[in-house]
Amino acid sequence: MERFVQLIVAGGVVLVGALWLVALFDRGSILWIVGLVLAVLGSAGLGAGILWELETDLVG
Fold it and tell me: Where are the transmembrane segments (predicted)?
């Protein structure tokens, strides 16, 4: 599988799990904070996957 697809899928899965954590737990709890951090990481993975493909298209 292409690297950019792996990044997009992994980022999306992490983001969905993180949003569940944020939705299920009280604001400020440890698991809510973990969900918030994972949401940022998942979003970064999605962005990295998209940028990877855009940069590849621009070069080739």
Answer: 6-25, 30-52
User: Residue 24 domain-assigned?
Assistant: yes
Instruction: Let me know: does 42 contact 18? Beta carbons within 8 Å.
Output: yes
Query: Do residues 50 and 11 lie in contact, with contact meaning Cβ atoms separated by under 8 Å?
Result: no
pTM: 0.84
CA 25 – CA 40 distance, rounded (Å): 17
DSSP 8-state assignment for residue 27: T
Determine the longest span between alpha carbons in the chain, in angstroms. Answer: 48
Residues 22-42 have pLDDT tens digits of 999 999 999 999 999 999 999
Reported residue count of the chain is 60
Name the nearest CA neighbour of 31 among 17, 13, 10, 11: 17
